[in-house]
UniProtKB/TrEMBL annotation:
It is an enzyme of class 1 (oxidoreductase). The active site is at 105 (proton donor). It comes from Candidatus Borkfalkia ceftriaxoniphila. This is tRNA-dihydrouridine synthase. SUPFAM superfamilies: FMN-linked oxidoreductases. Residues 19-300 form the DUS-like FMN-binding domain. FMN binds at residues 75, 143, 173, 204-206, 228-229. The keyword tRNA processing applies.
Length: 313
């Protein structure tokens, strides 16, 4: 695929390989790794707009942005246009120029609250949310699925609504809500979404390697791709797609992530987070299951570092 910059409203990001929002994973230290391997734009995990309103400590911690991160987008979910607008205007989100609105989360708890993918059933509300957020003066992007199920495909209609309401870019996950993460994305519907709007369209779903990225662009004509589960196992995939030959030193990457997190998150959180991340990175290695158990048993930093040294010796 052609690697090229993407213009999102007044902001130009260096390339069209995006690192998806991933709840529990895409913190600043992981995003740093993704940028290092060549991601053009990263996203925070989804954060509740209501949580921000009530100044929830946990929510603010999820939104730490390192000074060297330039354009990272903060992702919000919610259903109340004014609460979402207030979140966009909040002090906590001041470091973020780009706000991404989650209109695709399939999780029942979110869906039942009329948030995430429930908005695929309620275009007027989704439109009010986007135009309210736009009034904050931020650059607004929207991530949505193609519908809640096969009988209710709304991709093009939804994309047109996003554009009309002022969205600066859309990311379309080419699966319906009921499929969660299973199966091939619907390339034809993503292609129709791309055809239906003038704002940039980023395609998401099932991109795990360079060939997948090529196929996604070829079949959909999208302006770029967003990778999600692939980067949990291998954030270096960005370099592979870019055709860069540098391999990655997983041990050094994990140790760097630990160093980056410690001063911001403290030892306890860093250990919990990094044993979770490391258990993804070791997938496919010899003795993986055994190492995974040992990783989860490591309850302090020196035990974790020693185990990382052993695994990657
Ligand atoms: C563990 C996990 C956490 C996720 N968290 C979010 C999230 O916070 N916000 C969001 O918009 N999508 C989230 N997603 C969905 C992904 O961003 C992406 O749309 C989906 O995994 C499809 O892409 P893939 O086939 O490349 O994995 C999550 C997915 C997974 C597996």
């Amino acid at each position: 695929m052609q690697i090229r910059p993407v213009k999102i409203g007044d902001i130009t990001v260096p390339n069209n390989l995006f690192a998806a929002p991933l709840a529990g994973y895409t913190d600043f230290a992981f995003r740093k790794l993704c940028y290092r391997f060549g991601a053009g734009l990263c996203f925070t995990e989804m954060v509740s707009a209501k949580g921000l309103k009530y100044n929830n400590e946990g929510t603010r911690a999820l939104l730490y942005k390192a000074p060297e991160e330039k354009n990272t987008a903060a992702q919000l979910f919610g259903s109340d246009p004014e609460i979402l607008r207030a979140a966009c205007e909040s002090e906590t989100l001041a470091p973020f120029e780009i706000i991404d609105l989650n209109m695709g989360c399939p999780v029942p708890k979110i869906y039942k609250n009329g948030e995430g993918s429930a908005l695929l059933n309620d275009l007027p509300r989704a439109e009010k949310i986007i135009s309210a957020c736009k009034k904050s003066g931020k650059t607004i992007t929207v991530k949505f699925r193609i519908g809640v199920d096969e009988k209710h495909i709304v991709g093009t209609e939804f994309a047109k609504m996003c554009e009309a309401a002022g969205a600066d870019l859309v990311t379309v996950h080419g699966r319906t809500r009921d499929k969660y993460y299973a199966g091939e994305p619907d390339f034809a519907e993503i292609a129709r979404v791309k055809q239906s709007v003038r704002i940039p369209v980023i395609a998401n779903g099932g991109v795990f390697c360079r060939a997948d990225a090529e196929r996604m662009i070829e079949k959909t004509g999208a302006d770029g791709v967003m990778l999600a589960r692939a980067i949990l196992y291998d954030p270096h995939v960005f370099a592979e797609i870019r055709g860069e030959s540098e391999t990655w030193d997983i041990r050094a990457a994990i140790l760097q992530q630990i160093e980056d997190m410690l001063p911001v998150c403290g030892e306890k959180f860093t250990v919990v987070q990094m044993r979770k991340m490391a258990s993804f990175y070791i997938k496919g290695r010899r003795n993986c299951a055994q190492y995974k158990n040992r990783l989860f048993a490591a309850d302090n930093l020196s035990a974790l570092r020693a185990l990382i040294d052993e695994i990657f010796a």
